[in-house]
Amino acid sequence: MEKKNLDWENLSFAYIRTDYRYVANYTAKAGCWDEGALTEDDKIVMSEDAGVLQYSQSVFEGLKAYTTKDGHIVCFRPDLNAQRMYDSALRLEIPPVPVEQFVDGVHKVVEANAAWVPPYGTGATLYIRPYVFGISPVIGVKPADDYQFRIFTTPVGPYFKGGAKPIYVRVTDYDRAAPHGTGNIKAGLNYAMSLKAIVDAHEKGFAENIYLDAATRTKIEETGGANILFVDQDNTLVVPKSDSILPSITRRSLVYVAEHYLGMKVDERPVYFKEVRDGNFKECGLCGTAAVISPIGKINDHGTDITLASGMEKMGPWMTKLRETLLGIQEGELEAPEGWIHRIM
Ligand code: PLP
Ligand code: COI
Q1: What's phi and psi for 96, nearest 5 deg?
Q2: Would you list the DSSP string of 294-306?
Q3: Which has the closest alpha carbon to 280: 233, 211, 240?
Q4: What distances in angstroms separate CA 239 from CA 219, 245, 248, one per listed residue?
Q5: Is the CB of 288 within 6 Å of ligand 1?
Q6: What's the pLDDT band for 162 if we cut at 50, 70, 90?
Q7: Dihedral over alpha carbons 49, 52, 56, 62 (to 10 degrees)
Q8: What number of CA atoms fall less than 13 Å from residue 321's CA on the CB side?
Q9: Model confidence band, residue 160 (pLDDT cutoffs 50, 70, 90)
Q10: Closest ligand 2 atom to the C-alpha of 225?
């Protein structure tokens, strides 16, 4: 199979149309998802009154396909994305896509777009975007009757410019998620309401926003598109715990990597922003599918800069080890725990 002629090393995190996408439909009349199929058609025709357009009834996922060192194409823990989208769907009264159908759709769409999967060693990956939305008309506030499930792919480079270089972020006064709200699911609505904060952050020179808990504004939640990790002075990986953050698959994998590959202690608990101010942590990073691990060098707290010991020049030693071990597992250089790698071809 001949690869597409792209400048793989210099891709940014932006949409490029690939050849195939997967589409399945659910109708209230049938009461189930159809078997789905690949199509080359990237356009969607729907009612002006579709549930997704009026009341934002949509949930999505994000995962990546990699070319391994020995030339296979694989993706990372797609069953966990499938389960998370299932859970997200239930929260928005969307009929959930069965886990097996999600994984099968991912498999088919990556296989069909194999020419778009970046070669090993380029630093680029094929980003996979599954999503479900209400497609039939609704005017009273209620769930749609009919839904569409689609998966497209797009080759991407690093989410933050400079890849693994430390970033400068700020604490924002906007709230991301209320207690008992939708912060723990991956719904488009959580991202729509973060746009004002991210546009403002970028204008002021910050790469991301750190959100605090909405109820007390004392605890670290996460950023707009990634979970947060810390390393304390005893080299323990400290992981903020909250019911209103997205259960990141990267974070859950890194907790395992820290304990089982790197011999680190892991402490998952509420983390107070005061601990950051008091200098209790020497390293900090963002983690997620798009971000992988991006080190945070400096945090702006309402005009006051807090510089992590690892600084703005380079990634700290623990974040480096975590990042390299995770990438090594994903790219087939290190042995993966059972079930983590789904081989496409
Ligand atoms: N938190 C938010 C708000 C996200 O959008 C993402 C991205 O998916 C993550 C965390 C990281 O989750 P994952 O590691 O499953 O990609
Ligand atoms: C991902 O990491 O997959 C995400 O969905 C984050 C998004 C903000 C690009």
Answers
A1: -70, 145
A2: EEEEEEEETTEEE
A3: 233
A4: 12, 12, 11
A5: yes
A6: confident
A7: -170
A8: 15
A9: confident
A10: 8
